[in-house]
Design a protein that fits this description.
With 916 residues, the protein is an alpha+beta fold. Among the domains are: 1-114, GTP Cyclohydrolase I, domain 2, CATH 3.30.1130.10; 140-277, GTP Cyclohydrolase I, domain 2 (2-Layer Sandwich); 291-502, Alpha-Beta Plaits (2-Layer Sandwich); 682-840, no CATH class. The chain is built from 21 helices and 28 strands. The chain has an eight-stranded antiparallel β-sheet, covered by helices on one side. The chain has an eight-stranded parallel β-sheet with strand order 24-23-22-21-20-19-28-27. Strand 25 and strand 26 (832-833) form a beta hairpin. Helix 6 packs across helix 8 (390-404). The longest helix has 19 residues, at 217-235. It is elongated. The chain starts with a strand and ends with a helix.
Length: 916
């Protein structure tokens, strides 16, 4: 085909839309805009070539003049580039027009030189033909809309420097639309439904790219393609992704001009359509979709059986093994509760659409399954209440995967985050046609619930077991506990890699280089500073709701792990152990540095003594005692003349984990913002009032010096929960009963005594049972329901030395493992599963007064010999503390809180070798 072409004909049409800056107001007249038009006319030039006479050809000067006269006419106004192109084609191909020679067809490219902000050019390109006296029509090739070199500054790349510094990325987008533009008519430049608002799309792409922080250009390009397709669907709701005739192709080029020194740029180019995102753009259900329910044969996900509900309960499994895995999962969970924002382009979503997280599992690190040559995964599961249908919920999950940064790759391959809908009430759902249900090789783009592979995945079953062990699989008719038992029984010792539970600690203050929030409505998600590991039982107990007690896992079945050390820094003048020693900044920093050098894993800073009779301190004064120390550590402002310190030690102290020993929301918030990573609350988010009764919730009394904050237990719980949830920090929740020296009567739990007739929780003292029930009730209130703290962020403390007799404290030390055992608690007739099952524990017995009381006791003489008692100061109880710490290690404590870090570090190392 011979072509006669006029390249980049310069025109100045008045465009009603698409100028670089929008009109100041509706009455403003559109300004002329610089536009370049390239005309390509098919024409057989063989006669002209043979005769060298112009009469056999097309006069391109006439073509250009005809177009210029039409476009630059004084009163001519064009609504869009498409409208301008249609007018030019009218000039060139209208059979009755006299402005130009008769043509059979023409290809036009109309380029706006000064387009909306951030991009170099925008253009529209199409080809039209006419036959005889018929009007011109576009060819089947359709219309191409282009945005060229849209520049964004963003985080992208795998190199450490690329994760800290934004770099320029140039994005070019081509939208190729062919066939029908909607269900009502053929593709046409004169059909406004096919027009593209370049300014709106540029803004969508610019904002989406600028807020992203992908590791690869491939993921970025896929994200931009998805955002473009979403935008096209949102502005033209008559388009249906299931209609292949209206399925545009989107080509995205993403280039990094500064990636390679000796190259202009590195670039990725992809072509995508709605069919490439089947989980996001689903067609309406076919008649083959199967949804059934078996309410009579399964247990509910929640305790609401028999109640009429306007919502459903679903179980969702999450996993991540790329980037900051913990940050990815937390971002996904927060985004999940904003379905209207995430799915803003979905017109069929209910106006009152909601998803609420109501329960979470522990968090696990697991070896990759199926495709083993990839990083380890972090896995968890959650329960949500929602009014979304299963298919809409799946669309939301896939949209969040894209939002957080999942890179489409091989099945079961690496991903920033993966969300699977595992259970939905008691329903059985399969969107595949009946003929395609013989195997599991065709699940892409389909929904099958319960998840068809859940019974072969420990990283799904174990998290579900944390929340709903007695839920019965609607098809297999086995409980989650039974499925996990069977799976682990099939796992051979040679190939089995135990899953480890993990606790992530966030980094504060949040670095300025941290990726921006993918959804502005959610709280900022902090990056991860570090994380702790501890074992999960290899074999779950065979939990049965009718059994009196549950099997206990022996220590020999657990993988090796170490005990973490928490050093104690009291910045108070009246602490029972070391008051006034570290209440000045230099001495506090000196202790902090010594703790780090001696092997402490975390530093617990307290500014309010909880010893009996301690003076009341205002929240403002407590903040003044604590926050300057936290800030000095994070800023590296170490004014410690007496301490020798290396550069490596200074850096280690700056990065050391910090816990806040406080029960006050104001102190917790200020301390975290200054750089703390954890909250340690001796009242477990309920404040110092005991017992927590309706009268105490009506307002605090003045019977204790600790009750001057004018907060009720309910207010403490609400505020502390909100802070822990927003900042995603681990929390230590301790069993206590108000004043540490009071409320030591546990006779209400005597049914649990080994001498009682009850077989519930055999060999457990009343104090162990009391901790499980009393602290368990608080933990349930904090973890379960809307706004709950993630289960994996909770560490429990049985409260050694708080509201317990000497024998009660010894009961705790010798049996603290039973506090979190998978046992039945409660008196006969009211048995239930231990609410503290599986939680990691902190034991804090260091220098406590009960140790001093034991040392004061005269030993009974045996054969005329016995030790005499002696009185001790708290700092003279180091060896007594060592015995208590060794007992804590034997009982599988995750962390021990100590004052003498070096000495207790030695104890822990030996005890770990003995017991673990």
């Amino acid at each position: 085909m011979d072509i006669i072409r006029v390249n980049s004909l310069s025109l100045t049409p008045r465009l009603a839309g698409g100028s670089r800056w929008p009109p100041k107001d509706a009455s403003s007249q559109p300004k002329p805009q610089p536009v370049l038009v390239t005309l390509s006319v098919p024409h057989d030039i063989s006669s002209t070539a043979r005769t060298d006479e112009l009469q056999h050809s097309i006069n391109y000067s006439t073509l250009a003049s005809s177009v210029r006269d039409k476009v630059n006419a004084k009163n001519q106004l064009f609504e869009s580039l498409e409208d301008l192109m249609a007018s030019i084609l009218d000039v060139l191909l209208d059979p009755v027009a006299k402005e130009a020679p008769e043509l059979s067809g023409a290809r036009l490219k109309v380029t706006q030189v000064k387009p909306p902000l951030h991009c170099k050019h925008v253009s529209v390109e199409a080809e039209a033909t006419r036959s005889g006296g018929s009007p011109w029509t576009l060819t089947a090739e359709g219309i191409r809309h282009r945005i060229e070199d849209l520049e964004c500054d963003l985080i992208v790349g795998v190199n450490p420097s690329e994760r800290e510094e934004k770099q320029v990325v140039r994005i070019s987008i081509t939208i190729h639309t062919s066939g029908q533009v909607d269900m009502e008519g053929d593709l046409s430049l004169k059909n406004k439904k096919g027009w593209l608002d370049f300014r709106a799309l540029s803004r969508v792409v610019y904002e989406a790219a600028s807020k992203s922080s992908y590791l690869t250009l491939e993921a970025l390009a896929s994200h931009i393609a998805l955002q473009t397709l979403n935008h096209l669907l949102s502005v033209n709701t008559s388009i249906q992704p299931c209609n292949s005739g209206s399925n545009p192709k989107v080509t995205v080029k993403a280039a990094k001009p500064y990636a390679i020194v000796f190259a202009k740029s590195s670039e990725v180019e992809i072509v995508r359509s709605w069919s490439d995102y089947p989980d996001t753009f689903q067609a309406p259900f076919s008649s083959a979709t199967s949804i059934t329910s078996k309410p009579s044969t399964v247990l509910p996900l929640t305790s609401s059986q028999g109640q009429t509900q306007s919502f459903h309960t679903a179980a969702i499994a999450l996993g991540s093994n790329l980037g900051d895995r913990f940050q990815n999962i937390e971002t996904a969970l927060r985004s999940l509760e904003y379905p209207k924002i995430i799915l803003s382009s979905q017109p069929m979503l209910p106006e009152d659409a909601f998803v609420t997280v109501i329960n979470t599992s522990f968090l696990y690190e697991s070896a990759p399954m199926y495709v083993t040559d990839q990083p380890a995964f972090v896995n968890c599961a959650i329960l949500v209440n929602t009014n979304l249908k299963p298919q809409d919920l799946l669309v939301l999950l896939k949209a969040i995967e894209t939002l957080v940064g999942r890179v489409p790759s091989i099945r079961n391959g690496p991903r920033a985050v993966d969300l699977d809908l595992v259970l939905y009430d008691e329903e059985v759902v399969d969107t595949r046609s009946t003929d395609n249900r013989v195997n599991l090789d065709n699940l892409e783009g389909q929904l099958v619930v319960p998840h068809p592979r859940m019974q072969e995945r420990e990283f799904v079953l174990r998290p579900l077991y944390d929340m709903i062990p007695t839920y019965t699989h609607p098809i297999l008719q086995k409980t989650i506990s039974q499925l996990l038992d069977e799976l682990l029984a099939r796992s051979t010792e040679e190939h089995y890699e135990p899953m480890q539970r993990v606790i992530p600690f966030p980094q504060y203050p949040i670095p300025s280089t941290s990726p921006s929030r993918p959804v502005s409505s959610i709280d900022p998600v902090p990056p991860t500073s570090t994380y702790w590991k501890y074992p999960s039982p290899n074999i779950p107990p065979s939990y049965n709701s009718s059994s009196k007690h549950l099997a206990i896992i022996s220590h020999s079945q657990n993988p090796k792990h170490r005990t973490y050390l928490m050093s104690t820094l009291n910045t108070t003048p009246d602490s029972f152990s070391d008051g006034s020693r570290h209440n000045k900044l230099p001495t506090a920093l000196g202790y902090a540095l010594s703790s780090f050098k001696e092997g402490a894993d975390i530093l617990d800073i307290g500014g309010y003594s909880t010893r009996p009779g301690a003076a009341w301190v205002s929240p403002e004064e407590e903040i003044e005692r604590v926050v300057p120390v936290v800030k000095a550590i994070r800023d590296g402002d170490f004014d410690i003349d007496s301490e020798e310190k290396t550069e490596e030690e200074e850096k280690g102290l700056r990065d050391m984990l910090i816990s806040l020993d406080t029960f006050r929301p104001e102190v917790a918030r200020a301390g975290i913002l200054a750089g703390a990573n954890c909250i340690n609350d001796v009242y477990a988010f309920s404040g110092p009032t005991y017992p927590s009764t309706p009268s105490s919730n009506a307002g605090p009394s003045n019977s204790s010096s600790l009750l001057h904050d004018n907060k009720t237990p309910t207010e403490y719980t609400s505020e502390m929960k909100s802070i822990a949830r927003a900042f995603a920090v681990p929390v230590v929740l301790m069993h206590s009963r108000g004043d540490a020296g009071s409320n030591k009567d546990y006779s209400a739990y005597s049914y649990s005594s080994p001498n009682s007739n009850s077989s519930s929780s055999p060999s457990d003292s009343p104090v162990i049972e009391a901790i499980r029930i009393e602290l368990g009730a608080k933990v349930d209130q904090i973890v379960l329901g809307p706004g709950g703290v993630r289960r994996w962020l909770v560490i429990v403390d049985p409260g050694v030395g708080f509201s317990k007799t000497v024998e009660g404290n010894l009961d705790v030390l010798r049996g603290s493992g039973r506090v979190v055992a998978d046992v039945v608690v409660g008196p006969p007739g009211s048995e239930r599963r231990n609410p503290l099952v599986g939680f990691p524990q902190l034991i804090g017995a260091s220098r406590k007064s009960f140790l001093g009381k034991i040392l004061e006791e005269e030993e009974e003489e045996v054969e005329g010999k016995g030790r005499r008692g002696r009185q001790t100061r708290p700092d003279e109880r180091t060896f007594a503390t060592a015995a208590a710490v060794s007992a804590a290690v034997q009982q599988s404590a995750l962390v021990v809180r100590v004052h003498d870090v070096r000495e207790m570090g030695d104890v822990v190392r030996i005890a770990d070798r003995i017991w673990r």
